[in-house]
């Protein structure tokens, strides 16, 4: 059984947000500042996960007044859909988000419409109501912005690719990056069972850009980053190995996508091909370790189910590059 709250090294607490009731799918992170500087929360998840964040704060011993900063890596609803709700609870917190996404947080009408088109009505209901964020609370962040938590420094790195409004937050204390979706998706339980990392890139439409994602993955892999705090899901290291794994997979997925560009029902066919590619990489190891998919069903869903969205992004990016 997965732990709902995990205390990590360096005064960081990982919270399982149990997105749509699914354990091990989405994480939020509380970071303790030094002295009396308060706390920072990174990633709120969807609105339906807000109570899990509040309960976790209470268990950890964080009062609402102590949370001084909330950062979101990008405005997709599984990462920031709960920001309107959470900002009302942590009333003293400044909110950090990329300026491209800021207007959609203040007025989420288009964000809701676009998300509903991608996810469907049922899933949007499971995500909960996306409430507007007070404009005066938001601080637009760009490359190199410094968030001070007393003597602790959190630095903003712009990382477009997964989305135009994507940033990562680098914690100098732990040499750890809160990667959002830039570093992809990680399966901690399956990685432990197989004794090797299991991850995949996240490349959804509408504005996935493969060239930019690769540039940022190369940047992270060659940086001083040692730990990755994945939103999907959990803390992992060594960072360089994990990043190089996802770089290789992304290059392979972009290559495979070229074979389906002119196919009818291309998104579905490419999605199945990506699923087959990942399963092929896991199959031998899982058989050797006597691991059945049912033993890691949530992680297999996390790895497999969103690949049709990823296929859509890969194909859209190819079409743009050929225009």
Task: List key phrases describing it.
323 residues, 12 helices, alpha/beta, 20% strand, 41% helix
CATH domain class of the largest domain: Alpha Beta
Fold-level CATH name of the largest domain: Metallo-beta-lactamase, Chain A
Oligomer: single chain
Taking all residues together, what is the mean pLDDT? 94
What proportion of the residues form beta strands (DSSP E)?
15-25%
User: Fraction of residues in helices?
Assistant: 40-55%
Counted up, domains total: 2
CATH homology superfamily name of the largest domain: Ribonuclease Z/Hydroxyacylglutathione hydrolase-like
Q: Catalogue the unreliable spans.
A: none
Q: Which radius of gyration do the C-alpha atoms yield? A: 19 Å
The number of helical segments is: 12
Overall spatial form: globular
Largest sheet: 7 strands, mixed
Architecture (CATH level 2) name of the largest domain: 4-Layer Sandwich
The total strand number stands at 15
Structural class: alpha/beta
N-to-C series of helices and strands: EEEEHEHHEHHHEEEEEEHEHEEHHHH
Strand order of the largest sheet: 1-2-3-4-5-6-7
Distance between the terminal alpha carbons, to the nearest Å? Answer: 49 Å
Structure description:
41% of the residues lie in helices and 20% in strands. The chain is of the alpha/beta class and 323 residues long. It has 2 domains: 5-243, Metallo-beta-lactamase, Chain A; 246-322, no CATH class. The strands form 3 sheets. It has a 7-stranded mixed β-sheet with strand order 1-2-3-4-5-6-7. The protein has a 6-stranded mixed β-sheet with strand order 8-9-10-11-14-15, with no helix packed on it. A hairpin with a 6-residue loop joins strand 3 and strand 4 (39-42). It is globular and about 55 Å long. The N and C termini lie far apart (49 Å). 48% of the residues are buried. The model has no long low-confidence stretch (mean pLDDT 94).
């Amino acid at each position: 059984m997965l732990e709902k709250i995990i205390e990590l090294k360096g005064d960081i607490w990982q919270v399982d947000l149990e997105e749509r009731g699914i354990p091990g799918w989405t994480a939020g992170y509380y970071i303790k500042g030094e002295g009396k500087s308060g706390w920072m929360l990174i990633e709120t998840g969807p609105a339906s996960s807000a109570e899990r964040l509040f309960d976790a704060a209470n268990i950890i011993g964080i009062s609402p007044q102590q949370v001084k900063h909330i950062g979101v890596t990008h405005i997709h609803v599984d990462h920031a859909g709960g920001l309107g709700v959470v900002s009302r609870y942590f009333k003293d917190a400044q909110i950090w988000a990329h300026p491209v996404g800021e207007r959609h947080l203040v007025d989420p009408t288009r964000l809701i419409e676009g998300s509903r088109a991608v996810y469907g009505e049922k899933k949007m209901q499971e995500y909960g109501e996306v409430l507007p964020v007070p404009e005066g609370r938001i601080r637009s962040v760009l490359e190199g912005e410094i968030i001070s938590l007393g003597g602790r420094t959190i630095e903003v790195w712009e990382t477009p690719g997964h989305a135009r409004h994507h940033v990562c937050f680098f914690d100098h204390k732990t040499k750890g990056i809160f990667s959002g979706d830039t570093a992809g998706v990680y399966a901690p339980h399956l990685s432990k069972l197989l004794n090797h990392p299991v991850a995949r890139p996240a490349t959804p439409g509408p504005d996935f850009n493969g060239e930019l994602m690769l540039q940022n993955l190369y940047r992270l892999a060659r940086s001083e980053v040692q730990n990755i705090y994945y939103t999907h899901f959990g803390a992992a290291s060594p960072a360089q190995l994990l990043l190089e794994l996802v770089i290789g997979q992304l290059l392979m997925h972009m290559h495979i996508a070229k074979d389906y560009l002119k196919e009818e029902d291309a998104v579905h066919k490419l999605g199945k091909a990506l699923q087959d590619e990942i399963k092929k990489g896991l199959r031998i190891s899982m058989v050797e370790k006597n691991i059945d998919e049912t033993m890691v069903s949530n992680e297999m869903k996390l790895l497999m189910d969103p690949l049709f969205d990823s296929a859509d992004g890969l194909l859209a990016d190819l079409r743009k590059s050929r225009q």
